[in-house]
Structure formats: structure tokens, C-alpha cells
Specification:
Three copies of one chain form a homotrimer. Chain A is mainly β and 370 residues long. Helices cover 12% and strands 36% of the residues of chain A. The longest helix of chain A is centred in the N-terminal third of the chain and has 21 residues, at 77-97. Residues 1-78 of chain A have low confidence and may be disordered. The interface between A and B is large, with 61 and 53 residues.
Chain lengths: 370, 370, 370
């Protein structure tokens, strides 16, 4: 996110919200944002919850699972309350942990080197272990140690050079998804270039042809390589910004659903990062789906005005609260943050977002501060 | 459906349609609607069909199944005709049974109690057995004994109070999907309120902020609770109705695909209810997807004009015959019933609608009476 | 495709492109199109690749598979390069084979017989073996020996007669998906007609009511029958063509994903057919999804302008590079072929298009010739 920093210092500690039932509602309006991040002490969770939590895998339940087993629900009345409390404790633990700090964040803005007027970006593809949520490590392929790779942001008409070094054990190639480039810069092995072998580098260079929210990703063994993390945002600002919406934040929001589980910008709840805005601000969100499934993104409390598809402005914007985003698509929306509070913001395929162990995967929040 | 009553007395008995091949086409125009519901006598079905029918489960075949086995198709010519007849008998049996009566219907309009100018709705969540199609009972969680829960219909600016009593063995909470409410009425445990424990009640109260086709559903262990039935329609009429389309019927059409199988308003074919209109009438359909999959809804014989997304009117309506509806989305369409007859109306993911045992799941009909 | 002939003589031999790395980029602009089809000699592929290739099934990997196994990627550095070369060889082999010739092509334009002013089309449904890619034969049900069936193209207001003869072992029926026909021509057994038994014929006759990109397909045991090939395009030209876009080619592009694997017009890569256009031409593509899954179609190098949904012109066309197409939907787009080269064109659900054995399934190319 270009104007959103990582967790430290800036974000709300949702975990500080009081949860005793007596004062919950009274203080609800105070729970939004402030102070430093406080990790949720695991000692606060009941033993039953801890035990159950160890069952949760990085990928969450398999798609289609309903996230419930009948066992605990069939207990007698007294035991039933106890099972409900144990389940609630797991749910509370996840939410109190949010936003949970992880070691490294992807999608970090990447300043170019300027070489004789050319904006030069250097990318290195390599294997790594990636932390999607606290202590959830997955095997990843990453550009510059980030999943998603660093965010490239240039302007229409810029001359750019991207130097990709392949430190993988497989060949690879780089496709600029959405850019209408000369054919030999399109990055498809055996059609527009040979594959880039392990240990080799390849240089792409072009004048940026069309504005919008685009992506870069591997186009070789791509179901595997993109699924494991070889992807990033390629944002092109228009030369003429007079038609652009005036916004206070410009957020890139990349969806994925492969071997890393259900992720937003490479992270799973509670490791996802909230969007934090001041009351009255406008936030532009650039959704990009790099996964294999649709994800209908539902924002609570405020609607989304859809302004562009695949980087092309819509002459007729439309409003929604749930925007369905298919693989390869990009949709730009603007949210007018006129409703204060902490708002759930999640994929509405519910098994991508919640199990009986609590929220996981494709869940974050939009925090509107008074 | 606000203006559509349950089966008795009103709907066509499709099962009365003559099916001997000699007079079928001659009398086809007479088969539309009239008389009382006549259950399809099971004695009419060949033994082979009956035996096969017992294989059909509430959920129908698994998504992705092609609904065919090669075995019966590989028989010799003579036996092949016989197998074809047996298959046809199963198909005919289902269609003759439609609309098959089941014990209880969901989505029934719920009149509020008016308490000092406040519209009060009382909901109780409890376990029950739900009949999706005749003798197909599934474990359900229901509001007021209905799946979907009772239909709430109010007007923009109304003050409403919803009192939810939890008779489940789990905690729960109520989210008003699409309504731009004050944060503390948003119904997300540990973010905007504590969970509502088994045996407890919780009161939501707010001034209805925005018009449109919205939903209410559980937001706690929601993949499980919504999948089992804790959902309903929350329709908000605009204060200024001058921009509303003039229609003769206003139908709510909730799609689901969880443990209950593929359902329309909680029912699977042949237990689904047709929409019955007079020639020349206009019908507004408010689609709502509470499931985990897309459902492209295909209407035969007439097109659908799409007028709103998630309750927000489209400035530029568009036409289609197949409308793709993703989880969490609502789409409003208007159908101009200008083509008389009984028209199939189904999800066009064919394994959600038909197997070699006949139609099931997401199938209903639009009956246009002369 | 009405104006696109089959492979012979016309299409580029992509397999002639030089692939030695030294001269690849230098000659890239020359590789587009020309000469006769040259099959890729299997002797060019290393033994390891050949062995691996035999694993590839008609349907490709199961949806959701990531197309990679960790085994080969975990080899030591030296062996790693060798594994990369072996993988690349498999990828190269597939692309060099494209467009690979198969015995019979579907979707061939079908000229009607004119009988007293009526356009008569005769269709025969029968079992056959269908070749989706070289030596990939699958059990199919086909109209006139084609998958998709022959392309029917008529004009609004034409009187047409379709005579369907059933040589299957099952009953069948023909639905005209998208046409607003009189009810008794709608083709739904037990609702609008009796099933057409094996050995019987049935005649449909009507005046074509509405223009657009429509389909015909079985509506009996349809998950099975359509999945195995009983489908085709039914294109209706408007009477008044003044509002039609002026295009140089008009291409029908039918997507399917059943037991035949992931196919475009009945073929899987490398058996798919490219679209070949001259620089500056405009190509209209009529997408039709006859499968069970969405397919977001991504075109490289140029955008797509969306002009119609389900045959209904959009008053407000919009642009994209990735168009999500759901089962039963038709979308018409126009591509302005202003960027020369061979452009990948594929479903962006990557496991529908690529595995670690190379591209397969829903992949083709748009070739723009200088």
C-alpha cells in the first residue's frame, strides 16, 4: 500500500478493546485505533482453545468445508454452554491478535533507480519461507523476498527497465498483465522469449503504454510459480490525472488462494493488515486477483463505488457492497469513509474467512477513525 | 415472497399435465396452471426408477460430477431403449411432482409489532429439522422455524428493533448485510459486540439508513451457521418510490448451496416454488446469494433487465437471460412476462440442477398464465 | 468460426520459430505466421519429457491442483538445472506443436437447406470418439459428428426448422438457449415436450425472435449430455445491422470444462485453433460458456471492448483484458488488432491452462500479422 505503513506505531491495537461483557458496548466507540501493537498473550486463551487452535492449518479448511462438526454441538445443555465458550474463546483470540505482526510484508513500494532517464527496477526470484500469519510459515517463491513482490508504480509514458534475476531451481519469465507492450516484452516462454534459466538474468525494457491497475507475474509453470508467490502490482498513473478521483489513500489489495491459503497481500488473518482512514477520507482500493477462485469482497458499513475494470475507467461507475473478483481481474473502487468504527472486510465465500476455530484467511478491517 | 403465497390453491398443478405422447403437444398450451396440488403417485414410477431415486441425497451429486455413469449407456440396443425409458420415468416423476408440497416454507413476510413508533421484529434462532423436498429432511439452524428466516420489509428512515433470542448450542450474532449502520449495530462478535451466548437475547435498534435488497444473517461461526440456515431477506423500500420500477409482483429469491444441498428459498426441486404471473405482468426478482458458489440464474423464454446491484440502482440497466450471482451479492431484475407458458428457471451450472435421475436442486419455473 | 478456416495452409507454423537462444529475440518479429503446419517431431523432446508427457490426461490436472510437485524442485543445484531443462523441453514441445492438427473440427458453419422459404437444419445426435488434442480421444456425444455441433447462423425474422434425430442410447431434447420462443419450442422434456426417444426424430420450427449470440444444447440429462458435447452456437444476425460493429472477423468461442477437459471449441491446447488477423483488423469474439465453471478469459497485448451480454447490446460498452464468463453466459467483445505478434490468450484460472508439463487446456493465441 503506497501510503499505508506497516503495523508498528500506526495501527490500532484491536487487542486492547475491553471484552468483558459489562463494559463492552459502553466503550465500543473507543476501541478503534491508538497505541502500539500489543501481541495477544497466549496465556489468555483457555487450554481447550489452544489445543483446538493447533489444528488450524495455513490454508484453513478446504474450500467447501462448512467449518463445523456436529460433535461439540450435540452436547447436553450444560456442556453445550461450555463448548460455546470454548469456541468463542478461539474466535476472540484471533480477533484480539489482529493485526498480528509477521516478519516481513510484501507489496512494499519500490523506488526505481533512475539511469539516464530510465526507471530501473531490479527483481530477484528466489525460494524462501514466508510467514502468512504468526508462526504460519509456507514454502514460497518470492521477488525480492516479498509476497506479493515489491509494488512498482510508474507513469504512462515512462521508460522503464525491469531486470529479473532467476535464483530459482526452475526457469521463469515475467509477464506484465494488462500492459499492451511490444510482443517481445510480453514474457511468455517459447512464444515471445526463451525461458530465463536458473542463474540467468533477463532485461525487459519498454515505454509504459497504458495507465491502470496492472500486475506482473511469472508466465512459466505459472499455476505453480504464481501460486507460490511470483506476483506483484504494476500500477500505472495516467499522464493526465484530471480524470482521476481525488483520494486520500491508494491501496493495493492482492487476493490469492493457492498453497499459501487464502491471503490478502500475502497474509492470512490475523496476519492481514487493516486499512486505517480518518473520518471523511476517500480510499481507493485496487483489487487484483492472482488466485484460482473468485472472491466476492464484502465491506461492512460503507459501499464501494466501482470506477475501473482492468485499469480502464468505467464511464458509468456503479455502487456495491460486495464486489466479485475473478482470477486475473483488477477492479478499482473508491470508498467514502463516512461511517466511523472498525468494519469487517472479507471475502464472502464464508469458508474462505471463518471456521469454527474463528476467522482466518481472507479477513481484514477498514478502520475509520473519528 | 411478499405477494406470492404458498402452494395451496393458487399454483398450477404441473403434475396434471397429460404426458401420453399422443396428446402431449396438442394440449401443451393447456398445461399451465389451475386446480389443487396433486401429489405424484409413486406407483406410476417403474421399480427401477424408484430404486435409483433412493440414491439421490439431499445435496444432490457433488459439484463437478457430470451426473452420468457409463454403465447404463453401454447396454445393447434393445436394453438401451429400456434404460432410456427408465431414466425418462425418473425425470418425469420429478417434474410431475413439482411444485411438491413440504411442511413449512421460509421467507414468509413478517409483520412487525409497532411499539411507540418502532417496528419491532422478534427472531429466535434454534435447531430444527428442515424439509428441503418431500421427505428430504436436513439438520438446520433456523430463525423462527424458517429457512430462510422470515422476510423483513421496512422503509428507509424507519426506526426498527430486532430482538434476537439464541436457543442454539453455540453463540451467535446478527449482521445486517448491506445496511450502513452505526458500528455497534453491525453484529460482528469481538469487533462490534460480544457474542450472544446460548440462552441469551440481544437487541439491535437503528434507523434504517439505505434502501435496497439486503440480508440478515449470522456473523459468528458463519460458514457453519449461515450454511445451516441462519439467514433471511431484509428489504428496504425507498422513501421516495418515484424511481422504483412499477411491478405486479416483488419476489425474493435466496440461493444457497451448503449442507442443505442446492436450494432456492430453502427448497430443492421438486420442492421449490414457481413464480406464477399473468400475461403482461412485470415481476421484480431480488436475487440473494447466501452460499459458497456462484449461481448463474438462467430464465427460459424471456430476458431479465438488471436494475440494481446490492440495493443500489443502476443508472444504466442491462439485459440478460443468465445472471451470474456470487456469494454475498444481491441483484434486482425485472421480467416482463410477455411469453405465455411454463418456463424452466434454473442455475446454469448444470450439476446444480440435473442428474441422470432427473432435475433436482436449483430448478423452479416461471409460469406465465394467459 | 464463420470466417476462420481450419488449420491447413492458412495458419502460422509456430513450430518453425527458431528457439536457439542466440537468435531468438533477433528473429522474434518474424515468427508470426506463414507456411504449412509442421508437426513437432517427438524426437526433439528428451526422454524425460516424453515419459512425463504420458502422464498428462485429457482433462489435465484436477482443478485446484497447483501443477507442481516439490520433488524435482528439491534437487541439488547441478541436477536442478537439468530438471529445469527437462521441464522447459516439455513446455517448448507443447508450444511448438501448436496449432496441432486433429482429425475433425467442431463449430463448422452449417448452410441451411431452403425449403419453401424455411431455413432447414438437420442435426443428428450420436456417440463418437472425439479428438481434443493429438491422440487425446474422449468419449463424446455429438451433433453431426462435431463438438461443438455445427454453427447455425440465421437472421432475426427468419423462419427456421431444426430436425433432430436421436441416435443416442438415451432420450434427448433440444433447447435454444437465449431465444425467446413459443413455449412448445423450448425443448424441456415433460414441461414443453416429451423426450425424444432413441431412434426417433423431432422437428422444431419457429420464426427467429431475437438477435444475438445464442446457443443450442440438450436439455435432458443435460449435465451429462452437454458435458459430453451436445451443444453448439446459434447466432442470430439482427435485421437492422446499422447498430452492429463493423468487424473483419466474427469468431465464436465456446468454453467447456467437463469430461473432455478444459476446451475451446472442443479442443485442448495444443489442439486449439488460433485466431489469425491482419494488423488493423477488428475481430468480434462471441464467448459462450457451456461448462460448469467460470473462465476469466485473458488476452495479452490488447484489450477487449465488451459490447453485448447474452445477445443484448450494452448501451455502455466497457473495456477489459480479462473477461469473466460464467456457465450459460454469452459475452460479445471486439478486439482492435493494433499490436502485431503472437499473443497468448487463455483462461486465467491458471490450473486450467498450465501445469509443470507445459500449457494445456484453455490456451490459444491471437496472431496479429503485419
Amino acid at each position: 500500500m503506497s501510503k499505508t505503513t506497516s503495523n508498528d506505531g500506526m495501527l490500532a491495537t484491536l487487542s486492547e478493546a475491553p471484552t468483558s461483557r459489562r463494559n463492552f458496548l459502553r466503550s465500543a466507540s473507543l476501541t478503534a485505533v491508538g497505541g502500539a501493537l500489543v501481541a495477544c498473550g497466549s496465556s489468555a486463551a483457555p487450554a481447550a482453545a489452544k489445543q483446538a487452535a493447533t489444528v488450524t492449518q495455513a490454508g484453513g479448511p478446504k474450500p467447501g468445508a462448512t467449518g463445523g462438526t456436529m460433535g461439540p454441538h450435540d452436547t447436553a445443555a450444560g456442556a453445550g454452554v461450555s463448548a460455546a465458550d470454548a469456541m468463542d474463546a478461539m474466535h476472540e483470540k484471533g480477533i484480539k491478535a489482529f493485526p498480528a505482526k509477521t516478519a516481513v510484508y510484501g507489496n512494499q513500494p519500490m523506488p526505481p533507480k533512475i539511469v539516464k532517464g530510465v526507471k530501473v527496477f531490479e527483481l530477484t526470484a528466489a525460494e524462501m519461507q514466508w510467514e502468512t500469519a504468526p508462526e504460519q510459515f509456507v514454502a514460497a517463491l518470492a521477488y525480492n523476498g516479498q509476497v506479493p513482490g515489491p509494488q512498482i508504480r510508474v507513469t504512462e509514458g515512462d521508460r522503464v527497465r525491469i531486470v529479473l534475476t532467476n535464483k530459482l531451481k526452475q526457469s521463469t519469465a515475467l509477464h506484465f498483465h494488462g500492459l499492451e507492450l511490444p510482443n517481445d516484452q510480453d514474457g511468455v516462454p517459447f512464444i515471445t522469449q526463451p525461458p530465463i534459466k536458473p542463474g540467468e538474468s533477463h532485461t525487459y525494457e519498454f515505454v509504459v503504454p497504458n495507465a491502470g491497475s496492472h500486475m506482473y507475474h511469472s508466465h512459466h509453470n505459472a499455476a505453480y510459480q504464481v501460486g507460490l508467490g511470483l506476483l506483484g502490482a504494476f500500477i500505472v498513473e495516467p499522464k493526465d490525472k484530471s480524470q482521476e478521483p481525488k483520494v486520500d489513500q491508494d491501496v493495493v489489495f492482492i487476493l490469492n488462494d493457492g498453497a499459501h491459503g487464502y491471503t490478502f497481500n500475502g497474509k492470512s488473518f490475523p496476519g492481514t493488515q487493516p486499512i486505517v482512514a480518518k473520518l471523511g477520507q476517500k480510499v481507493r482500493i485496487r483489487y487484483m486477483n492472482e488466485g484460482m477462485m473468485i472472491h466476492p469482497m464484502h465491506l461492512h458499513g460503507m459501499h464501494q463505488t466501482v470506477i475501473a475494470k482492468d485499469g480502464w475507467p468505467l464511464s458509468n461507475p456503479w455502487k456495491c457492497d460486495t464486489l466479485n473478483i475473478a482470477p486475473g481481474e483488477r477492479w478499482d473502487v473508491v470508498v467514502n469513509c463516512n461511517n466511523p468504527g472498525t468494519w469487517a472486510f472479507h471475502c464472502h465465500i464464508l469458508p474462505h474467512a471463518e471456521s469454527d476455530h474463528g476467522m482466518f484467511g481472507m479477513v481484514t478491517a477498514l478502520v475509520v477513525q473519528k
